[in-house]
Amino acid sequence: MAQNTPPAAPTLPELIKHYQALTTGVINFELYNQMVHTHHSTAIEGSTLTLLETQTLLEKGLTAGGNPWSTI
């Protein structure tokens, strides 16, 4: 009688490599972390900007007043 054994579970390095391949080019984690950190930091200081508004300002290089960063 043949014994049915399940396949070995993938190792942690194999799983990491697999999931890194899935997210490559999909999410820029450095940019995402910068955006979220900025949003939360300004929210702590009382800003009412949404995460999307914060993202838009960072992507366009503007301040909340609409001025470019170079003018402040």
Automatic annotation (TrEMBL):
Entry-linked InterPro entries: Fido-like_dom_sf (IPR036597)
Key words of the record: Plasmid
Record protein name field: Uncharacterized protein
Lineage summary: Bacteria, Pseudomonadati, Bacteroidota, Cytophagia, Cytophagales
